[in-house]
Design brief:
Elements: E1 2-3, H1 7-12, E2 23-24, H2 27-40, H3 48-76, E3 81-84, H4 97-102, E4 107-112, H5 123-128, H6 144-152, E5 155-158, H7 161-166, E6 175-177, E7 200-205, H8 214-226, E8 230-235, H9 241-251, E9 257-261, H10 265-272, E10 277-280, H11 289-296, E11 300-304, H12 307-312, E12 319-321, H13 326-342, H14 347-361, H15 364-385, E13 390-391
Parallel strand pairs: 1-2, 3-4, 3-13, 4-5, 5-6, 7-8, 7-10, 8-9, 10-11, 11-12
Helix pairs in contact: 2-3, 8-9, 8-13, 11-14
């Protein structure tokens, strides 16, 4: 089951309505809430905590319609599992969780994600992103429906280790970690050559906003770009683009920085696959899909050791830069790049390891297999002895 606004995307993907999916029309409540969220977020792509909070107000109506349509079937045992995949936010309570559990059917949550705290020293970026509600986000824990949902769940899938740490201690025994992002090998099928002759080729891929760190990246790379030891390609657009171009001119590195703007997905792969490094100093990344995409191409990631990217990258597969105030990040990133330039011979081994792990553990098929294994663990004899029936 999915909300009505997703219907066209499901149809475009080739799924059959009424057989593969059912669209639940909760627009009577969802539509005005959506319009309110667009006003209160105060800018496109900003105020995600506000958007999540407003959406949470309309979500119980969606589940009420779901239960009205499927409650009797769930109570009859027509389904082995009920899995709430979205909303991703752990702050959104699920009113039907206790009803499903009372019917003797396992209820699954996740992968839950979000809520990564803003690091110290980035309060200006926090305000610029209109994240006013993030200051009081923890109030959701007072919602009794939220506690009932956690108690009713048979399995809670956490999309990040931070989100897993937010689950109350008494429920930790049913928490499983499974990052929400994955890659499609058919779409990321090139392999970076990892040619080590200077200049080394670095890429930044992402929205050009302060918390993604492109300004810090230019400052950290400036010396290496000026002296010809590195070049940088920037893929993405956003409100910082003009400022970044001016910064590149001011630092005397414009000749070594190429701004591509927003590119189609297949073109992003082409640009990434000509790189040695993905340099991505985002300080508040829930998932880090671009990190996995780079790893799948054999491009070595250089990321902040914080939140999503820091959970996907290890010393075997890339470089982790310690998080801190802005000046410390710039200095640490510069030192890391200096280390790489002093011994670029380490890159091919890291690239091979990154590619191996991405294709082994982080394809959609690999993650689907893990989900199915989790289903079997909680479904009981009936679900294991036949084709499991799950309502989503």
């Amino acid at each position: 089951m999915t909300q009505w606004r997703n219907r066209d995307a499901f149809l475009r993907a080739g799924l059959r309505e009424g057989t593969d999916f059912i669209a639940i029309d909760s627009e009577a409540v969802a539509a005005p809430m959506y319009r309110l969220a667009e006003v209160l977020r105060m800018g496109q792509g900003k105020g995600w905590t506000m958007v999540t909070a407003i959406a949470a107000l309309s979500y119980p109506y969606f589940e009420r319609l779901v239960w009205k349509r499927f409650g009797d079937a769930i109570r009859r045992g027509d389904y082995d599992i009920v899995h709430r995949i979205t909303p991703l936010s752990p702050t959104t309570a699920s009113p039907i969780a206790a009803k499903v559990a009372a019917a003797g059917v396992p209820f699954v949550l996740g992968p839950l994600n979000g809520g990564v705290p803003w690091p110290r020293g980035f309060d200006a970026e926090r305000r610029r992103e209109r994240e006013w509600l993030s200051y009081v986000r923890g109030i959701y824990r007072l919602n009794p429906t939220h506690r009932h949902m956690m108690a009713a769940a048979s399995l809670i899938i956490a999309g990040s280790r931070h989100t897993a740490s937010e689950i109350p201690e008494r429920f930790q025994g049913k928490v499983a970690w499974l990052p929400e992002n994955a890659i499609d090998p058919a779409r990321f099928n090139l392999v970076a050559a990892q040619q080590l002759a200077l200049p080394l080729r670095a890429r930044f891929v992402g929205r050009l906003v302060p918390y993604k760190g492109p300004q810090m990246l230019l400052d950290a790379m400036a010396a290496f770009l000026r002296d010809g030891r590195m070049v940088l390609d920037v893929v993405g657009d956003g409100p910082l683009e003009a400022d970044l171009r001016e910064q590149a001119d001011r630092l005397g590195i414009a000749h070594a920085v190429t701004f591509h703007g927003q590119l189609p997905h297949d073109a992003v792969q082409t640009v990434l696959a000509r790189a040695n490094l993905l340099t991505f100093p985002s300080i508040r990344e829930f998932g880090g899909g671009v990190v996995l995409e780079a790893m799948a191409l054999g491009v070595v990631p250089v990321v902040e050791d914080y939140a999503g990217p820091g959970e996907l990258v290890s010393d075997e597969t890339g470089f982790l830069v310690p998080v801190g105030p802005r000046d410390r990040i710039v200095a640490s990133l510069q030192a890391c790049l200096q280390q790489i330039l002093a011994d670029p011979a380490v890159l091919p081994a890291k690239a091979r390891a990154a590619r191996r792990i991405a294709l082994q553990d982080f394809t959609w098929d690999a993650k689907a297999a893990r989900i199915l294994s989790m289903y079997r663990d909680i479904a009981g004899p009936g679900g294991q002895s036949c084709g499991m029936r799950a309502t989503l």
